[in-house]
Design a protein that fits this description.
The protein has about 375 residues and is α+β, with helices and mostly antiparallel strands. About 50% of the residues lie in helices and about 15% in strands. The protein has helices at about 5-20, 50-55, 95-120, 125-140, 145-155, 175-190, 210-225, 245-255, 275-280, 285-295, 300-310, 315-320, 325-340, 345-365; strands spanning about 25-30, 35, 60, 75-80, 85-90, 160-170, 195-200, 205-210, 230-235, 265-270.
């Protein structure tokens, strides 16, 4: 019997509800700590009213921001299952506007919890796949013997390394195109050995694949991603042992988030370096970084820095690219130093500015 919601499921729920209502959603545990949220900066913070709602098992509405610690205006509704408190769901916004969405989030949570319980005892092939994969990628394996036995059914060895692949369908596609994308993915995977996969709502396929099989089929995945670049993106996690596949899943998610830094629709975590850091930094933190580094610079200043770094900080090549005299370029670099306090010709400052320019270019796409 399920008595808690893991962070992965909670994050799936908040993302789903936000797509419907456009408001920030928080999952709060019995201690009042936000453990999943559409606002990444709030994860791990204390929510006073969430704690009170958990303690009293009552719905609490807050009419104004910042009256209570870590709390914004909105509705906080406890979710119970089989007599146990699962979590408190908080939805930010005017209570009259978001009240119905809070109830929707509570219903979705209860439905998904029941679905998880059914998966644990399911006997159909697709349900078994879902249960096994969810157990492996969450690292929450309740029935080890059952998992090992079922892996043999799907011809996956306990002792070999495997990878998690996340095939993400671009959600902006119309429903007719989404159906075509799903059929293409099914056709691709049916032709490959040593893997199991299932669809994770709302737009992603998760694949567990033997490392040897992935190596053998890597070119097929690359061709598939190139041919369907407008439809989907593939993130490939690192190779791990069967009971450490939650690490492979996390690295596959980082690979997906790194897509904006790579000019390709299939990203291997193994190929990432700087992108690992950039793909792990929340969007809000990136914006703060840009505010502290480039906010005082003009578009021309940023273009100059972009060219300067792309040319390996070579004054002569930068001058050629921008049709500038060397003295003019040096003057402009000195001017940037005076304005933002960071010197493009100093190694440490240049690293800071280079990262800022890279992030800025992505945000402007």
């Amino acid at each position: 019997m399920i008595t808690t919601v893991n962070r992965q499921l909670a994050q799936q729920i908040v993302a789903t509800v936000q797509d419907i209502c456009g408001h920030d959603i928080n999952f709060i545990n019995q201690k009042g700590i936000i453990f999943a949220s559409t606002n990444e900066q709030r994860i791990g913070t204390f929510h006073e009213i969430g704690k009170k709602a958990a303690d009293t098992r009552t719905v609490i509405e807050v009419q104004e921001n910042d009256i209570y610690q870590g709390t914004e205006k909105g509705v906080n509704i406890p979710v119970a299952h089989n007599g146990s408190l699962i979590a408190v769901i908080g939805i930010t916004g005017d209570p009259d506007e978001v009240r119905s969405y809070a109830c929707l989030a509570e219903k979705i949570t209860r439905l998904l919890i029941r679905e998880q319980e059914m998966n644990a005892a399911a006997h159909t092939l697709s349900e078994k796949k879902g249960y096994i994969i969810q157990s492996l990628i969450s690292g929450d394996i309740d029935n080890l013997e059952y998992i090992i036995n079922e892996l043999k059914t799907f011809h996956l060895a306990e002792t070999t390394k495997k990878r998690i692949l996340c095939i993400q369908i671009h959600s902006e596609q119309p429903n007719s195109v989404l159906s075509v994308s799903e059929e293409k993915i099914h056709k691709l995977l049916r032709n490959m050995d040593s893997q199991i996969y299932y669809f994770q709502y709302p737009n992603e396929y998760i694949v567990v694949m033997e490392e040897a099989s992935f190596t053998q089929n890597q070119s097929a995945f690359r061709t598939f991603a190139e041919e369907n670049a407008s439809l989907l993106t593939i993130g490939v996690g690192c190779a791990e042992s069967i009971f450490h596949l939650h690490s492979s899943y996390n690295s596959a998610r980082i690979a997906l988030r790194s897509r904006k830094y790579k000019n390709t629709n299939i990203i291997l975590f193994d190929d990432l370096t700087l992108e690992i850091l950039l793909g792990s930094v929340p969007a809000g933190a990136q914006k703060e970084y840009l505010k502290k580094t480039l906010s005082s610079l003009s578009a021309d200043d940023r273009l100059l820095l972009d060219t300067y770094f792309n040319e390996g900080q070579s004054l002569s090549r930068t001058c050629q690219k921008l049709y500038l005299h060397k003295n003019t370029l040096q003057y402009k670099l000195d001017r940037i130093h005076r304005i933002c306090g960071l010197n493009p010709r100093d190694f440490k400052d240049a690293v800071i500015l280079y990262l800022a320019v890279l992030i800025s270019n992505i945000h402007s796409l």
